[in-house]
Specification:
Arc Repressor Mutant, subunit A, five-stranded parallel sheet, 57% helix
Length: 212
């Protein structure tokens, strides 16, 4: 697995590179121009993107050219609003530039397996935005009501999605094809009105957390 490290700060690049030695292969770019050039011709398991390297309009253009790319945004001053904004644009991870080695490795394992990595504050904010101003009990009722619409097979798959498993992992766990998993997910998204993995995971986790 090759991870692209992109930052204009050489110390940041070195820090990330040192963290990933022995776990992931890495390549490095130090400008937006270099990023665009290599990004157009190569595919990476994930792209660590330093927030200082890019602004919102530039990122919108970058990801629109290849929506399937996995961008993990790292910010010197992480903020909920910034995370939510970039999440809507298509990032699959958000964290602190100076994340520890153990956390960075864990995060990359999650996102390279099809999951999304966000801080707890961002997740809580997403849950609030998803369910509006409903009370905790009401939020859990929303989860219960949505899950009741699913078949047993669909509920099993939804639970595995909520744990952060990829389609391939779910297929292996349930001894079914990845194509079958995708077909079930299409039905699950429609029945629960979620539309994607992240919202589905949030919906399910609402019903499990007593502290949201």
């Amino acid at each position: 697995m090759t991870i692209l490290l992109s930052s204009s700060n050489s110390k940041v690049i070195m820090r990330w590179s040192d963290h990933l030695i022995g776990h992931f292969e890495t390549e490095k770019v130090r400008s937006l121009g270099e990023l665009k050039a290599i990004y157009a011709t190569r595919k990476f398991e994930a792209i660590l993107l330093h927030r200082m390297l890019i602004d919102i309009p530039a990122f919108s253009l970058l990801i629109s050219s290849s929506p399937a790319a996995r961008f993990f945004l790292l910010s010197d001053r992480p903020e909920e609003e910034e995370a939510l904004l970039f999440l809507k644009l298509g990032i699959i991870g958000y964290g602190n530039t100076y994340i520890s080695a153990a956390r960075l490795i864990e995060a990359l394992r999650v996102v390279t397996n099809g999951g999304v990595w966000l801080g707890q504050k961002v997740i809580r904010r997403l849950i609030v935005d998803t369910t509006g101003n409903a009370k905790v009990d009401d939020k859990k009722d929303i989860t219960t009501s949505a899950m009741a619409k699913l078949t047993k097979a669909e509920r099993n798959i939804a639970e595995l999605v909520a744990r952060g498993e990829s389609n391939l992992e779910i297929a292996a766990d349930l001894n079914i094809t990845e194509r079958t998993v995708k077909a079930h997910l299409t039905s699950i998204y429609e029945k629960t009105k979620t539309g994607n993995r992240l919202k589905l995971a949030l919906l399910i986790n609402i019903g499990k957390s007593p502290n949201i």
